[in-house]
Amino acid sequence: MNDTATLSNFDLRDEIKAYWSARAETFDTQPGHEIFSEDERAAWHCLILKHLGEGEGRAALDLASGTGVVSHLLDDLGFRVTGMDWSEQMLERAREKARTRGRSIRFVMGDAENTMEPDDSYDVITNRHLVWTLVDPKAAFVEWHRVLKPGGKVLIVDGDFVNVSPLTQFLKRLATAAGRIGLIKDARHGAASPEMAETHNRILSQVYFSEGARAEAVVDLLRAAGFAKVTVDKDMRAIHRAQKKNFSFFKGLERATQHRYAICAEK
Q: Using one digit for the tens of pLDDT, what is the confidence trace for 78-90?
């Protein structure tokens, strides 16, 4: 892992923000980002209920909320939701989605590593595919601990997309080869441009988890930040089964073999 003290935080954070702002236009067209079936929605609901329970009006902070996908899942379950993202382009789409669906979700601009929210102000914090991008995850986890009420919980959904198994590597090569000759095309899943792929790889090479966000490493940092009762849930099968309908055969298999997880921890 990189020593975060050697990173140029301003430059890296600025690049991360610009990258996701550029991704905003097509974010909701991609499986694994937006939800395309009620089966997948139900699977996400089950995961959230398993770890956080019913909302019952409790305050939830959805960090790196993007276009509001997880924020809407929390709202479905009765949480009082604030979605926070530092990309105005993402927030514009999130607010429009909430207006269209008649949801009273609050969306604000902010930094997940320095939220500026009051102490002890939220019952739960959620994020999906955020941790791998953090410049200083331990500092972020300390911040989340501060913002949570005593007994509050954080739910992290993420994965290690760097260290993949031989089977995953083989499936990825098959999918790439089949795509090049036109045998397969992922439904609703446009390929990233070479420029965007290059930016993604450059960012990945500089963040703390440049060598992969393994669940065990995330757990260690959560405990160091003061969290207790940390649990790791690697059973993402229901979500993956629902998502497979919008992926090619090989892409669906590849996703199911990746090191993906949900981590819940309590203040």
A: 999 999 999 999 9
